[in-house]
Specification:
Layout: H1 4-12, E1 24-27, E2 37-38, E3 44-49, E4 52-57, E5 67-69, E6 73-75, H2 79-86, E7 90-96, E8 99-105, E9 112-117, H3 120-130
Antiparallel strand pairs: 1-2, 1-6, 3-4, 4-5, 7-8, 8-9
Length: 131
């Protein structure tokens, strides 16, 4: 799973999130970033209220949460979502002694670049951040 810091970097870089079932997120507040939430049709649902997206916590008895606005949530994209963000620029993924090497084309016709990270999702996120 990508780190909260990488998720913040993706947000600052302009990566947009359209919440959907299966997405992971944290509430970006000092005491809540260690708790990862998943959007599902049974517990956390995306609602629209007054033109704003809300994440509704349905049936959660252990939390005193009803909903949070999308700007309070920090998306933790999955491996498949990060690959989708790289799109056809992704050239190869290799397992190395250091972890994972993601090879991609930065700009069309400029050749390949690569990033390496011990965690595959973090390697993908680093590649996205270079675009």
């Amino acid at each position: 799973m990508i780190t909260v810091e990488l998720a913040r970097e993706l947000l600052a870089a302009g990566v947009l999130w359209e919440p959907a079932a299966g997405d992971r997120f944290v509430i970006d507040a000092e005491l809540l970033t260690a708790d990862v939430f998943w959007i599902s049709d049974l517990t956390v649902e995306v609602h629209s209220y007054a033109g704003q997206s809300l994440l509704g916590f349905n049936g959660t008895t252990e939390w005193a949460l009803d909903s949070v606005t999308l700007d309070q949530a920090l998306w933790l994209p999955r491996e498949d979502q990060l690959r989708e963000l790289l799109g056809n620029r992704l050239r190869a993924v290799h397992r190395t002694a250091e972890g994972w090497r993601v090879v991609f084309e930065h700009e069309p016709g400029t050749g390949e670049r690569e990033v390496t990270h011990p965690d595959l999702e973090c390697a993908y996120a680093r590649a996205v951040l270079t675009l």
